[in-house]
Amino acid sequence: YLSEEDEPSHDFKALISSLPQGKGWPSPPLYQYQGFWYLPAVLQGTLACQNEFKAQDTDIFLATFVKTGTTWLKALAYSVLNRTRYSSSSQHPVLTTNPHDLVPNLELSRSSLLTNLPSPRLIATHLPLTSLPDVPPRCKIVYLCRNPRDTFLSLWLFAAKVAGKSELPLAAEEAVELFCEGGCPYGPYWDHVLGYWRESVEKPERVLFLRYEDVKEDCGSCLKKLARFLGCPFSVEEEEGGVVEEITELCSFGSLSNLEVNKRGVTSLGTETSAFFRRGEVGDSRNFLTDQMVEKIDRVTEQKLHGSGLSF
Ligand code: A3P
């Protein structure tokens, strides 16, 4: 979230110098704020949105930990909400615009961009529930989680890909170690997931909790759940007319990753769009991580999620 002034304020510099500092992925360092780890630029945007962002009752937040399928969720939710405007699929914005430019991120975008979104505003965030700015209880939040092994793998490879050419990527062992200690952007992963999970159990009308693995297995059912939750369920005519399958196909990994805009584009925040599409499979971590690494991540998962009713 950037106000019109981009320069870090004196107060921000003072705050950041007082925060615990941790190792970056591979650089710059991360800072711990309200129990989670942030890159300096993200922290600046986080503080600005906590102070200045004005939520509207109709806002819809798409919340995710990094690398858990944010791009996919953005495309799906955008397509569900706008399905009557773009019934002719050759005109669909998903075909020509990367999902990150269709659904801006709360803590990373310019304030004016968010203010000017049409209502209901669809806004993405990686912030943990406890660090969201004031969000009225009527706002809907959709959380998409992914199993920690695949999330770790995707994050580790993404960090190496977008790092500067001169930077050495983190060794896998060290990255697993840091991830398990919580030290990665927006980490600890488990605290992030649990915050939204508990809220979804307590207030299912406020938070819809989805899993990447379930969307992969049965995207149609998840889309129907999503549309009901957002107050725009698919009609019988739409279901019979194949609208759910059309959205599933439009947003599938194969279709999105083959679009020109996602093969050779750059997002408005400067990331090559192809970096958001690697393999899009469940269980790929098995092909990269040693048994010891998997066991380590699984052990932390068991400890952290014990008694929560959530498991992977
Ligand atoms: P992999 O690295 O395992 O392939 P995010 O969007 O949160 O950055 O997450 C990126 C992960 O989601 C990557 O996982 C990416 O390939 C996968 N992904 C992107 N689009 C997808 C889609 N349409 N369907 C399934 N997975 C998708």
From TrEMBL:
Q: Which Pfam families match?
A: Sulfotransfer_1
Name assigned to this protein: Sulfotransferase
Q: Which organism is it from?
A: Aristolochia fimbriata
GO molecular function, a single term? sulfotransferase activity
Query: Which EC numbers does the record give?
Result: 2.8.2.-
Query: What is the main EC category here?
Result: transferase
Q: Which keywords does this Swiss-Prot/TrEMBL entry list?
A: Transferase
Q: Which protein family is named in the record?
A: Belongs to the sulfotransferase 1 family.
Residues of the Sulfotransferase domain: 57-309
